[in-house]
Amino acid sequence: MVTNQASIKRNGVQDYVSLRATAAIITAFTLFMIYFFIATPVVSFEVWQGLFANIYMKAFTLATLISIMIHVRIGLWQVLTDYIKPAGLRAGLQYVLNLIAFAYVAVGLFVLWGV
Fold it and tell me: Whole-prediction pTM value?
C-alpha cells in the first residue's frame, strides 16, 4: 500500500519518531548545559553572553526550542485525547496550549537572537 507522505494527518510511527528525535535533542542540550555549569567555575554575565554569542550555540538552542514545542504538541495531543472526552473542550484546550507553546518559542527566539 502506498501512502501519501505529504498529508497533514499524523500517524503513530511519525509521532514515535518525532518524540524520540526531539527527546534526543533536548537531552543533548541538557547534558551540554550541565557540563557548562560544572566546567565553568564562575558564571558571570560576560561568560553567559559569550556562550550565547556563538552562532552554533544559537542554532543549538533554537533547535532545542523547536524540539520542545514539537514534543509538547505531541504529548499534549496524546494526553488530551486520553483524558478529555468532549471534542469541543479538547479542541479548545489544544488551541490554547499550542498557542502558549508557540509563544514560548517566539519569546525564546527574541531573547536568543537579541544577545
Answer: 0.81
